[in-house]
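Annotators were shown the component list below and the corresponding predicted structure, then asked to write short factual statements about the assembly.
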Amino acid sequence: MNWTLRWFGPHDPVPLAHLRQVPGLDGVVTALADVPAGTAWSRAQVAARAARLAEHGLSWRVVESIPVSEAIKTGGAERDDHVAAWVESLRAVADVGVTTVCYNFMPVLDWMRTDFAMPLGDGSNAMAYDEATLQRIDLAAGLPRLEAWAQGYTPTELRAALERYADIDEARLLDHLSAFLRDVVPVAEALGVRLAIHPDDPPWSIFGLPRIVNDAAGIRRVLDAFDSPANALTFCTGALGARSDNDLVAMATEFAPRIAFVHARNVRRTGVRDFHETAHLRGAGDVDLGGVLAVLVEAGVDVPLRPDHGRMIWGEAGIPGYGLYDRALGLAYLQGLAEGLERRREAHPFPRARV
Ligand code: DNO
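Structure shown to annotators:
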């Protein structure tokens, strides 16, 4: 595994000087979050970010994310220009050594939560999602921009964005994604970059919007839409694990050759469409991170992995899910697990799947 942590940029409350002290960290996952979707990242901006990381001795191999614009997802008038801009950003990051680009194809919103600081009873807090609370959200008020979202919406913008999906069902959204893949995957292949789509979070439709990457069948459709190792998956155990019918170990086994990036996150399911996030440790939530890691190690999947969404502990304040302390604990846990699995494999080699 290539051990990474996400850094949101110069305004991230976690300084790079602290990230570099995390044991065994191979690199940082970051993006130019201030550039709006549909606009190309300039080579100067990309080079400046790479230089900033290099000053701290941190490498940048993974971008999360180059955002996909609404025009691309809806097949709007600016679609071709926005794809061209996306490709320009892709070329710029490949030039500074990036080999994995995470993105998502969730309409209007990126991931969604209904509580960003739910007390867990021990003085810590974590993010939570509750379907009944979601249904009560008044979309007429718009949605504020959150740090980890590509964008926020004023009431008028949100109404317009939702209206654009009035006649877009799941099949049409998949057509738009397939067209996007036909345009970008060949470029990625030529550049030696793997594109890693992030699953829908939560893994079901919200606000009546179509969502197509949330179970094995949906992921199969996306991977089959363009058969190339460069058309790959971000295996997010937290997003997929919020649904009890997603068997993560079976999915990791099936998709191993196409997993280009791993988000290791744990969630406790509290209802069919309700959950909260937890520590990464076994038993803290319902996700079997050890089981998933065992599959990946056995299959020889050697890709970037980052512990995702920790709790807020020890009084740390910051971007929900992205405090340093609990993510660092999660990383150490995962590193220990992987070391144990690798030592076992060295002592008792077992046949490895070819990937
Ligand atoms: C949440 C993240 C997502 C992810 C995007 C990928 O914390 O996992 O925001 O970065 O969905 O495009």
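Statements collected:
1. The mean pLDDT is 95.
2. Residues 2-347 form a domain with the TIM Barrel fold (CATH 3.20.20.150).
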